[in-house]
Design goal:
Number of domains: 1
Strand content: 5-15%
Distance between the termini: 9 Å
Order of helices and strands: HHHHHEHEHEHEHEE
Number of strands: 6
Shape: globular
Length: about 230
């Protein structure tokens, strides 16, 4: 799928959910930590790029609830703050209740200390694996918002790994069995690798046919999209 179409769909989703404001109601309950009040509200981890990842995952979802939001949106009332807050909560609760990412397999490359995109996506039903040099034991979480079950799943589906380890592709494949619908990164340059290799070139074999890699840092508005 071409970059231009995804850019159009991203802007469409921005408009439908109140120019990204309403995803702020994916709050501490979803990100499992008290660093930042919601997804995308942190400075070093859980940055706005993480929110872009979630927005993109929703765009690529084929769930009818997401299609409904894209086509009709929610009623926004910017002049009435209570109504605006209510709409934001309604959105997150509706997406969670309907598990709109169920059946979607995601790989989050370079997830950081607070893998907020991965955590939110799991709440919406996705199967998510994370990869980072940071061990899962060092991930930040708050027991008030993050259950032991959540913690166990996060540890089980995290791979501590240098992406440029010569055997990284094989190690990820062995752990995950590959076949990802969506592979994404929030804080990796697509040309981070040695000898001019980029992330997409190296890890494209992990995607299923027509699987997508979304680079949230691709540009400041929409990111970059690559489809296998």
């Amino acid at each position: 799928m071409k970059q231009e179409k995804f850019d159009k769909e991203m802007r469409k989703l921005y408009r439908r959910i109140g120019a990204r404001q309403q995803l702020h109601y994916f709050d501490k309950k979803y990100i499992g930590a008290s660093s930042g009040y919601a997804i995308g509200s942190g400075r070093c981890d859980n940055t706005p790029f993480s929110r872009k990842q979630l927005e993109f995952a929703l765009i690529t979802s084929k769930h009818p609830i997401v299609k409904e939001i894209l086509e009709t949106g929610l009623v926004d009332d910017y002049e009435n703050w209570e109504n605006f807050i209510a709409n934001g909560k309604k959105l997150s609760e509706k997406l969670e209740k309907n598990l709109v990412l169920k059946g979607v397999k995601i790989l989050d490359l370079g997830c950081g200390y607070i893998p907020s995109f991965a955590r939110c996506s799991r709440k919406l039903g996705a199967e998510v694996y994370t990869v980072d040099l940071i061990p899962s034991e060092e991930f930040e979480f708050d027991e008030e918002y993050f259950s032991q079950q959540d913690r166990d799943e996060e540890i089980n589906k995290h791979i501590k790994l240098d992406l440029w380890d010569p055997n990284s592709l094989e190690k990820i494949t062995q752990k995950t069995k590959s076949n990802f619908d969506l592979m994404s990164s929030a804080h990796l340059s697509t040309s981070d690798g040695p000898n001019g290799h980029d992330v997409m070139e190296r890890f494209a074999p992990l995607l299923k046919k027509d699987g997508i890699y979304f680079d949230a840092m691709g540009n400041m508005l929409d990111g970059k999209v690559y489809q296998k």
